[in-house]
Automatic annotation (TrEMBL):
Key words of the record: Cell membrane, Membrane, Transmembrane, Transmembrane helix, Transport
Domain Major facilitator superfamily (MFS) profile: 14-482
Protein name as catalogued: DHA2 family efflux MFS transporter permease subunit
PANTHER family: MAJOR FACILITATOR SUPERFAMILY MULTIDRUG TRANSPORTER MFSC
Primary localization: membrane
Length: 503
């Protein structure tokens, strides 16, 4: 289909089908976290084993998302979406019926294999179907799915686990997955151009080792400790894998993931800001429940409900932010959003044993409001600078780096929280010992709780400085012009030289 004709009459029904598929996949990503203790009891497995239900899912996604650029370039979008939703549906059905733990782990990995292609595919269809001056609005709608679905997951999961069996988590998703698959078979059409490119096995292997090693290493650090050989080893192997993967891509005529997209300055800057904001976002989503459940003793369902308004605000704001992006550009939105995020994060550095539930909910919601003004506008502005044929590589890179930076940010800030808590506890116990008094069990418990609060406050302080880094970078953002097709800087220079020679 001609690109100009497509952009005059975008395929809204088709995009709606893709939206539902992506929403179900994103929701599934965080749906199982609250149910892990229940699954441990049923299958009689340890914490280190049950963690594979989330780690395995994340690793498969981390491995396949970088390869999504190849799949989107090589295969028709209709066939790719149907294949992805089929895999996701099979994995969901298998998980709902899993008789043994290893079957459940395998089912989650099959789910992840299908889900990995859905987000990049949806983004590329939207970038193809809408002219550059309208992309802010449509990418805002994508933000509604990308941000709100994972945030709603823990609340929904907590309610289901409290009232039903954990298998209901998959039984609820399955009808939506099958319905989306059936609609795709009858309604989806091909709107994107494909090229005959070959998959480089060495690139795929290096990508698997690199991104998989980093994700596993940083995700395991909070549980096993930073000095554990498996953590240090996988991180080192991951870094080396990414270095060799990058070198390999630069020497290929048709790379699996085009790293030369970083020649485009606004894409490079948007990528860095997105990484920094993702670190702050995902770490906050983990540290806040720690405070609510361990310090305040609030139930998992109430902890999920505390985070729900923030998720709803992000979902509500995403389309609005998209329209504001089309009108005012990314810079003013990013600066205002990051100022709000920084101030809200600062408020979370002052938590105490009696901070009210309502105040915590309000502050967390305001923080999510600020983040919602940054993520999609910045990402859209960066993608706008890429030529159309580079879009699959840009979306694949963004999705991969978000997963990796989220895992890294969470691991680092949880470690900071733990180490600070331990040092404050030791200092307090030493002071008590030096006073010659023998503390009671209640006093020791109070010291431990205060040490944990200090650790949480300190980790939020570090998160605040991370958001300040993003705020400083936001002042260098420039709006990508909507007229003309973006060019590679080297291509643009050679064209100018040719014009001079002809003159």
């Amino acid at each position: 289909m001609d690109i100009n004709e497509l952009q005059k009459k975008p395929p809204y029904a088709m995009i709606a089908i893709l939206f539902v598929g992506a929403f179900v996949a994103f929701l599934n990503n965080t749906l199982l976290n609250v149910a892990l203790p229940t699954i441990m009891k049923e299958f009689d497995v340890k914490e280190s084993q049950v963690q594979w239900l989330t780690t395995g899912y994340m690793l498969v996604g981390g491995v396949l998302v970088p390869a999504s650029a190849f799949f989107i370039t090589r295969f028709k979008n209709r066939h790719l979406f149907i294949t992805a939703m089929t895999l996701f549906s099979i994995g969901t059905l298998l998980a709902a019926m899993a008789p043994q733990f290893w079957v459940l782990v395998a089912a989650r990995m099959i789910q992840a294999a299908g889900a990995a292609a859905l987000s990049p595919l949806l983004m590329n269809v939207m970038l193809t179907s809408f002219p550059i001056e309208k992309r802010g609005t449509v990418m805002g709608m994508f933000g509604l799915v990308m941000i709100s679905a994972p945030a709603i997951g823990p609340t929904l999961s907590g309610w289901i686990v409290e009232h039903y069996d954990w298998r209901m988590l998959f039984k609820i998703i399955l009808p939506f997955a099958i319905l989306t698959l059936l609609l795709a078979i009858f309604k989806l059409r091909n709107v994107m151009e494909t090229r005959k490119v070959t998959l480089d096995v060495l690139s795929l292997s290096l990508s698997t080792i690199g991104f998989g090693g980093l994700l596993y290493g940083f995700s395991s650090a909070g549980d096993k400790g930073w000095d554990a050989p498996i953590v240090v080893g996988t991180i080192i192997v991951g870094v080396l894998g990414i270095v060799f993967f990058t070198i390999r891509q630069l020497t290929m005529d048709q790379p699996m993931l085009e790293v030369r997209i970083y020649k485009y300055p606004m894409f490079a800057l948007s990528s860095v800001i997105s990484i920094v904001v993702s670190m702050a976002l995902f770490s906050g989503m983990i540290i806040t429940p720690v405070y609510v459940q361990l310090v305040r003793g609030i139930s998992p369902i109430d902890a999920g409900l505390l985070m729900l308004p923030g998720a709803l605000v992000m979902g509500f704001m995403s389309p609005i932010t998209g329209k504001l992006f089309d009108k005012f550009g990314p810079k003013v939105l990013a600066i205002i959003g990051l100022m709000i995020t920084t101030l809200a994060t600062y408020e979370l550095t002052k938590l105490s044993a009696d901070t009210s539930y309502g105040y915590l909910m309000f502050t967390y919601t305001i923080r999510m409001l600020g983040i919602s003004m940054v993520m999609m506008p910045i990402m859209t502005n960066g993608l706008n600078q890429l030529p159309m044929k580079m879009n699959p590589h840009g979306t694949a890179m963004n999705n991969t780096l978000q997963q990796v930076s989220g895992a890294i940010g969470s691991a680092i800030l949880i470690t900071i929280m733990t180490k600070h808590k331990e040092s404050r506890y030791e200092a307090a116990m030493t002071a008590v010992a030096q006073s010659g008094q023998k503390p009671s069990a209640a006093e020791i418990k109070q010291i431990g709780q205060q040490a944990l609060i200090d650790g949480i406050n300190f980790s939020f302080l570090i998160a605040m400085f991370i958001t300040i880094v993003a705020l400083i970078l936001a002042f260098f953002v420039k709006r990508v012009p909507v007229t003309g097709s973006p060019q590679n800087p080297s291509e643009k220079k050679s064209q100018e030289q040719q014009k001079e020679a002809q003159a």
